[in-house]
From TrEMBL:
<dbReference type="GO" id="GO:0003677">
    <property type="term" value="F:DNA binding"/>
</dbReference>
<dbReference type="GO" id="GO:0005634">
    <property type="term" value="C:nucleus"/>
</dbReference>
<dbReference type="Pfam" id="PF07842">
    <property type="entry name" value="GCFC"/>
</dbReference>
<feature type="domain" description="GCF C-terminal">
    <location>
        <begin position="20"/>
        <end position="232"/>
    </location>
</feature>
<dbReference type="InterPro" id="IPR012890">
    <property type="entry name" value="GCFC2-like"/>
</dbReference>
<dbReference type="GO" id="GO:0000398">
    <property type="term" value="P:mRNA splicing, via spliceosome"/>
</dbReference>
<protein>
    <submittedName>
        <fullName>GC-rich sequence DNA-binding factor 2</fullName>
    </submittedName>
</protein>
<dbReference type="InterPro" id="IPR022783">
    <property type="entry name" value="GCFC_dom"/>
</dbReference>
<keyword id="KW-0539">Nucleus</keyword>
<comment type="similarity">
    <text>Belongs to the GCF family.</text>
</comment>
Amino acid sequence: SETKSQKVFSDVQDDFCNVKKILSRFEEWRGCYSESYHNAYISLCLPKLLNPIIRHQLLAWNPLKDASMDFENLPWFTAVETFCHGHGHEELEHTDRQTLSNVIERTVVPKMTAYVELVWDPMSHQQSVCLTDVCHRLKEDYSTFEGEPSKPVKAFTEAVVRRLRSCVDEDVFIPLYPKKFLEETSSPQRHFRDQQFWTAVKLLGNMGKWDFLLPDFVLKELMLDKLLNRYLMTTLCSQTLSNNAVYACKKIADSLPLSWFKGESTCLPQLQNFRNHVVQKVHAICKQQSAVVDLLKVLSTIRCHDSIMAIAQKYHYEDAIYSHQLLNQETA
């Protein structure tokens, strides 16, 4: 409990459990005996030295909740940041510049790994948003996910991939019922199938938030090869989503990372089945202009410009294409 945790350092003098006071000794050493300080490789030792104290301060921190970067408000963070970067008025030229990033990798990232392995539900939109927000900010502010990953970062990304993989392989279930049950919109079978389908679509969106954090080939395998083509396409092709079919295509396209299509002029191989389904849907509803435009936007998102032109010429949608800029839509 939190009360018990406060007693952990009760018998330790402040000089040895207060990060600011500990670092003040090293700052004094660095200032007075710079050569000796650097020869001792102190910047490599500090993350390990401070680890137990910082982990203690992080006990109440939860990366799956809102305001999850609030570890930056904890006393240890301010102390380490000041030690590494000075007090704002000085530009420190020394090896301790990376110490803050190294400390975060040794303390914050392993805590996140534990939450991924033991608590995180990839189906939860809120938890996934909070967790990926922390990761994107760590990447942006501390270069945590840049370049060759350290052992803690590698362990974290491997834990995320394992959790996502097990979620797709073991938790996703979209039943196959005889068509007579699915055509009856009020049947319990139809209700359960729809519920499972939309849960899987939500998971697809949650997984898309890991763009720039996990390798592309891993995300494409999990999102496209497995989730989309193995599960979602079966339901889409069953023609039993009724009025929700167009909306489902939009939601799926919106879930895919924009970076996959930046600078691309052709559709990804793993999206060919999805593309074919969207085109077939356009042919089936060719007179419903607003719905057709929505599907043309889907085709534009996944870079199927040849399909868009063929549809435009066949059903005279050229004006809609140019007014919505569907052939030169560039991703941000």
